[in-house]
Design goal:
four-stranded antiparallel beta sheet; alpha+beta; Arc Repressor Mutant, subunit A; 8 helices; 11 strands; 2 domains
Length: about 210
């Protein structure tokens, strides 16, 4: 995978924008599990992820955690940008699900970029479109699909070399259910010979129909 830089994110931007972007941006290195956003937080920095990923989710009143979207390579957080632009608190949780390398831009500088440069506005708006569409897909899955179906899809979509490195709690958060439900369903799949489950890891032994 080729190294990603700020300049490569905006290959067609003009010199003035690139100079401002680089001068405003501060490099960051974050460990897996670092919480970088929570409900009610005042957003003082806007992130750009170059390596790794950040998971964004919220907790309902009944304690159920609902996955919203991921901030991946070459992306920014739409909720952070909206919070900065509208001067409102952050409404969700954001946690690094891998080690993350990237940059942060002070809120006032991010507002300046948004007002002055179409390159940055389009970048943020593209993230909004992508993630709003993704939220509709999440909502549709929560409404129309059973938990066992969502779990099987999660396993198929997140396996790397037939292995998923995630806790039951993390999976439950991503598919919008309780940890106990995930544990029970995984145990059933293990009894049927589809999976081998160890601490923090799930190994696929044969295709799940």
């Amino acid at each position: 995978m080729k190294e990603l830089t700020l300049e490569k994110l905006f290959p067609y931007a003009d010199k003035n924008f690139k100079e401002d972007l680089v001068s405003f941006s501060q490099p960051v290195s974050l460990k897996k599990g670092t919480m970088i956003g929570y409900p009610g937080a005042v957003c003082e920095l806007v992130p750009i992820v170059l390596e790794g990923s950040v998971k964004v989710y919220f907790t309902a009143e009944n304690g159920r955690e609902i996955f919203l979207y991921r901030i991946g390579r070459g992306e920014t957080c739409i909720l952070t940008n909206l919070s900065v632009l509208k001067k409102v608190p952050y409404p969700a949780y954001a946690v690094c699900e891998e080690d993350v390398l990237g940059y942060v831009i002070p809120a006032e500088k991010a507002n300046y970029l948004f007002e002055k440069y179409s390159y940055w506005r389009n970048f943020v708006l593209d993230m909004v479109v992508k993630n709003v569409y993704g939220l509709f897909l999440v909502l549709n899955e929560l409404i129309s699909k059973r938990v066992d179906q969502r779990l099987v899809e999660y396993i198929k979509n997140n396996a790397k070399g037939n292995v998923i490195k995630a806790t039951h709690e993390e999976i439950a958060r991503d598919i919008g259910t309780a940890r106990e439900v995930v544990s029970r369903l995984l145990k059933e799949l293990e009894r049927e010979g589809y999976l081998e489950i160890t601490r923090g890891e799930i190994r696929i032994l044969k295709p799940i129909p």
